[in-house]
Amino acid sequence: MRNAIVLLAAAMMIPAAANAQLYKLTPEQLTELTKQNPFERFPDGRPKVPDSLIERARGMSMEEAFAILPGKGFRNQYEDGFQVLYPKKKMVGRAFTVQFMPARPDLDAVVNAKGRITNQTAIDMVQPGDVLVVDLFGKVTDATIVGDNLFYYLAKTAKASGLVVDGAIRDLEGISEIDMPAYYRKAHPSFLTNVTITGINVPVRIGNATVMPGDLVLGDSEGLYFIPPQLVQQTVDNADTVHVHDEWTRKMFDTGKYKSSEIYGSPKDPALKKEYDEYLKKRLAEIRGKK
Amino acid sequence: MRNAIVLLAAAMMIPAAANAQLYKLTPEQLTELTKQNPFERFPDGRPKVPDSLIERARGMSMEEAFAILPGKGFRNQYEDGFQVLYPKKKMVGRAFTVQFMPARPDLDAVVNAKGRITNQTAIDMVQPGDVLVVDLFGKVTDATIVGDNLFYYLAKTAKASGLVVDGAIRDLEGISEIDMPAYYRKAHPSFLTNVTITGINVPVRIGNATVMPGDLVLGDSEGLYFIPPQLVQQTVDNADTVHVHDEWTRKMFDTGKYKSSEIYGSPKDPALKKEYDEYLKKRLAEIRGKK
Amino acid sequence: MRNAIVLLAAAMMIPAAANAQLYKLTPEQLTELTKQNPFERFPDGRPKVPDSLIERARGMSMEEAFAILPGKGFRNQYEDGFQVLYPKKKMVGRAFTVQFMPARPDLDAVVNAKGRITNQTAIDMVQPGDVLVVDLFGKVTDATIVGDNLFYYLAKTAKASGLVVDGAIRDLEGISEIDMPAYYRKAHPSFLTNVTITGINVPVRIGNATVMPGDLVLGDSEGLYFIPPQLVQQTVDNADTVHVHDEWTRKMFDTGKYKSSEIYGSPKDPALKKEYDEYLKKRLAEIRGKK
Amino acid sequence: MRNAIVLLAAAMMIPAAANAQLYKLTPEQLTELTKQNPFERFPDGRPKVPDSLIERARGMSMEEAFAILPGKGFRNQYEDGFQVLYPKKKMVGRAFTVQFMPARPDLDAVVNAKGRITNQTAIDMVQPGDVLVVDLFGKVTDATIVGDNLFYYLAKTAKASGLVVDGAIRDLEGISEIDMPAYYRKAHPSFLTNVTITGINVPVRIGNATVMPGDLVLGDSEGLYFIPPQLVQQTVDNADTVHVHDEWTRKMFDTGKYKSSEIYGSPKDPALKKEYDEYLKKRLAEIRGKK
Amino acid sequence: MRNAIVLLAAAMMIPAAANAQLYKLTPEQLTELTKQNPFERFPDGRPKVPDSLIERARGMSMEEAFAILPGKGFRNQYEDGFQVLYPKKKMVGRAFTVQFMPARPDLDAVVNAKGRITNQTAIDMVQPGDVLVVDLFGKVTDATIVGDNLFYYLAKTAKASGLVVDGAIRDLEGISEIDMPAYYRKAHPSFLTNVTITGINVPVRIGNATVMPGDLVLGDSEGLYFIPPQLVQQTVDNADTVHVHDEWTRKMFDTGKYKSSEIYGSPKDPALKKEYDEYLKKRLAEIRGKK
Amino acid sequence: MRNAIVLLAAAMMIPAAANAQLYKLTPEQLTELTKQNPFERFPDGRPKVPDSLIERARGMSMEEAFAILPGKGFRNQYEDGFQVLYPKKKMVGRAFTVQFMPARPDLDAVVNAKGRITNQTAIDMVQPGDVLVVDLFGKVTDATIVGDNLFYYLAKTAKASGLVVDGAIRDLEGISEIDMPAYYRKAHPSFLTNVTITGINVPVRIGNATVMPGDLVLGDSEGLYFIPPQLVQQTVDNADTVHVHDEWTRKMFDTGKYKSSEIYGSPKDPALKKEYDEYLKKRLAEIRGKK
User: Given a contact as 3+ CB pairs under 8 Å, which chains touch C?
Assistant: First the structure.
């Protein structure tokens, strides 16, 4: 019953650890913290939403996540107000989280006692398909998580799926030529300085949202949704229904025969309702047959 | 002289009314309120700026509206600070107005006594060529007037010319694929809730502007102008003059022979001034001949 | 069944009316709109919360209003962010509402057709015990509802209980010498201009709150609550219970024998709980006996 | 050498723990984290700046902390922009820190698995002389750490020295009658909800400052300084010098014989400089003799 | 006719100048620039509004300045949004202006070529009765024009009448014990650094106002008015009329016999109007006889 | 040694001057003020960074300016927060500066005594390759420096390289069709009014930056850098090194063999470091050979 006892282990527990950030979770702790995850995990315990679901999530919108999450009590998973590098490009991937705090020399000395932990320490741990999610507490000057070289590394070498930073980036011009989605508060020419990394792959706060390692990160021109692994399947399935609903609704609108309120949200006429139900059933079968 | 007495009738006066919003104007009241309108009207009394003027207004800019309106005492007809869905696409149409207030159950009970009045109640009343102008008092969360389905209905079925909302929209991704201009404060995934419709086709406030039903709404990447029907002809005519003025000014600039101050706003050299006056006369004749 | 038919009459319906604002309610309409009011009314139909309840409400805080209203579905009755003239002085009174919109000459001409309606038109209608509640839509420059002379009139001649303006006041120095509570967004030396009164004693919006004529207005250093008449008794009664609860809780804290969680919100020890219940019963009897 | 290995232990490591917040430090971990502390510690490892130094710090200003800290590399220990309950009352005490994050049900379930952790869990741990420092990430609605009852408990029963919350308080009216300093972003009537406690006595972020458990918290009408224990003595000593310097400078100004630049920052005339040096020496001896 | 030719001379024109800021006006230039000044001047050319008018201005409000200035075309002489050190204390004095810009080493080198120009350079030039008006372009961190020692010097040694800074002060606690009005954007513990003085007694911008050396500065809890010398007499005289008007208006209100609109702005009844005119005449004679 | 004495001459010194703004520098004064300029000058003394360097600067980013300037003490040369007309188009040119202040009639009378100075006065002085840099102190309404006609003149007739205005432009729609970069705070339909030009080609403040006439202005989608002439060569040379560094770094990243921290900022392996050093040397030779 070791797991029941030592749930969440801490930073620097393992003597040989190269990294020693303030907050660090062992695979067992991270597994415990995300125990509702129905999928496989990375060796470090992080949930690994399967590629097939990531692919299906690419067709989802913010609203389709909103349709499920608040109803399940997850009211703090959406955040917006970012600069969006590619507003026309959907971002989908698994959250790899990093937490910073304003630096102070005494904390710095403890955290970096066994080798300096930098943004590159975290970047070098990013896995293909990850979205790097960085809590820089809204700071922009001196809070540039990457410039174009590290952004290039993330996109091309690490094969990351995107970047979210509640802070800044630099080299916007260079970054604008690299094909990976990014969400940031501001671009600024300054360096990353006067901050300390206090956690890698721990729960972080991005504005009003709490993000856990392994959350599915979904981004479009509107904002960002951080979807817990245990709700991904349901959210994606429901999105299929929404898509068919919209498809049928617009078909009806196209006839020009109805007021919007006769058809939407749900057809008022029972005959139409029946027609819709059958359409939905058929189309869902087609869609899911394909997948 | 009934009109002089019963000017503005009120909500719910007609027992069979399906809608019973707090403020409602009879056709006589709306006619009285907009009595300077020189054009035809819709059956509900709303001024109907003719299609031919709407077409000419498509060539106008905010500055050309500004050139006329404040001088006539209309200093509160411009508003900006919106997200603009299609910055390169001019929006022109007749204002169809809707007013919301924060919900309270006692007001709600009275307003909805004879059937719930929703955003779709108003949307189903929109006429071809209308711009739906919605006063949601700047609220964004829970203040999404439409998602992509109702936006589709407005654009395709109702054949509206655009949307202005001092509030939010949802489904930005879906809306971005539908070809109708929209001006909104923010996109947000939440539903429209916790508000009450208090008026349809009554005067509304959009930021610092007062909008009346039937105003000509003009929008470009800069902002929005709400032009009273009685000033549309003069504004459009003056814009023709401005266009010729600019045409001639740039021709002169192209010669490279003049300082800007010798030519603009008005040529300093009397000979040039004469040349300009003749050019203006000729060009206006051509332009208006065409129309 | 006249009432069922002519619910809300409109502005300028009565030929002899001296005032002709855009929105105006007859006594019947205002009575219908506030039909849950359990108290007497003013001749114009406005609910008149009795003086005895106003007196008891003077002991209430924002939190004691919050304890009842959202639970009854009234989630939009609180607003803050004001400059508070006397932070140590509780404000309690009946809402007398005024609505302004940005001026436009065509609207102005209709509204003022039978004599100019100004801020003084409304001020001269204020009754003793009223709080003048003014919707100036957050505008401050050129939006000064009163200076020190009219503030003096309200306080001394009209015997008003206070002023709330989602806009500005002028003559702050002079006003600071007059003993009546006021809540305003800013003080500014400019005049009230470039706006039109569009309603007196109609529902108005003050920030995020909807205020109805006759609401009980409660103000302290924190903010403002607008309490519908039908909920005043329950709110005031519940406040008595809260006061006794706090009295007893602090007595227990004063013993130094308990952790806060053993006593508050409710005593954990059944014996203490019983002791508390008896104390509450006894004290409520005393308090209400007095009243 | 276990300590050298297991530096910072984590939440829920000890099976019998009543509290199980996400981040929790054992006494050994907190000692390691604050190992530059030259003073005694509380049983939980938190540094305990002696009462005598707290008393001397009462004479200090923000500027006297600024005079030492940035020069030692501590550039992120100041924060302002708070509502200050008692602007004329200096606040001095030892930081007791609490960290919140936006709630999510899966995190909540783990954190509260062994009994719900609430604001009262932390409040009941506060020691005499502590300042409760709460990271509510700037949230105000639904983020009211205490009302007047718990504020009373902190002030009277726990004998705390003050409250700092990067969030809200409620019951401002009641709190205004209790004699303990408080710094908060806003007062709001709502309850504390939709958040989770993720750490007690761990490093927290208050705006741009990083606060460690046991920091000396200094507050006046200007803002707040969080001084690491290891710099308290030097800061307080230096403040004595500043006070004498100011005393002498004003004496010289009082003579009316000098331009400000002849005396301040340092006297230009060598004879005056010598006079000052002697004065400083004598006065410091007097001051320190007294202490 | 040298004056007509060499109107405004510049910085560093006079070889022996101790100060060499970027912009500097000779007495002749400053005289030319303020040539509408009807009063005496300081040796440096700065207008010297007489003490007797300063004394009378002490009874004026922002509104009484507003009553005259915009009508004379002076629409940019008011500014607010300051922290006000003593909201109950009127500030009146002659503007002594200082302009800063963000520092750059090449500009610094030229400006300070003949000796470093600092805030103390300007402070040492302040005359009794002056209000030091400092353009620090709204910057607050590192933009603290004075701490308590220099504030003490200004108040006690220089006998200044007040301080206005579009920037910050430090040592707010110490300053709060010194009896001189101050208007500042923020208090902050940092030093004044990273800026350069670019002008002393030149026109400066304070927010939206343009201030000229020698303007009469008037401040109360509302904001600040900068009154050109040539309009001081008229403004002060008009304020007397306003005071009598208010006195009489309130007397009438006290009778309880009138609606506000019957008396204010001007009595409607011709008999009352006559009574008022006589009262005004008599009281003005009394007031001015006294002065 | 005349130059050492009469450094900065002033406005209106030359009797025949057509322009008489408050602040004006003679060629000698401007030369003195920018004496570190290593390049030729315009007849009015303004530094003229050579076209060849302007061409090379076109390849630079904000970060490459940041790499040099703060280290040389130039910490106030960057500003952002603008609307950017062409985010994909680099702007490079020589600063031609204009300063405005809020208008006041007495200042206006002096400044315009010899002929009205307007925005066109300055625009007519702009030289090919200049960027017009306008200090309108952040004002937007009534602060539109140009509309599309004058923008056309700047781009086509004056052959300017761009526009920066800490204020507004008008005719955004028309301007969007003219191919010249522009940085502005807002577009607004109002005219330029209620302001006075107080200097042409004097040091100006654009937000937090101090700009001198002749600075190299560099703009991209991120923001603006104002580079003093004396640092242009070094900045451009260093940018070459950065470009090669990035080129090589990405080559290494492309191999997929390295963690980012092994290569960037500098290769950790001495053999790689050597390889890099040789690559850099070779590439710089190639690049500079070409130029």
Answer: B, D, E
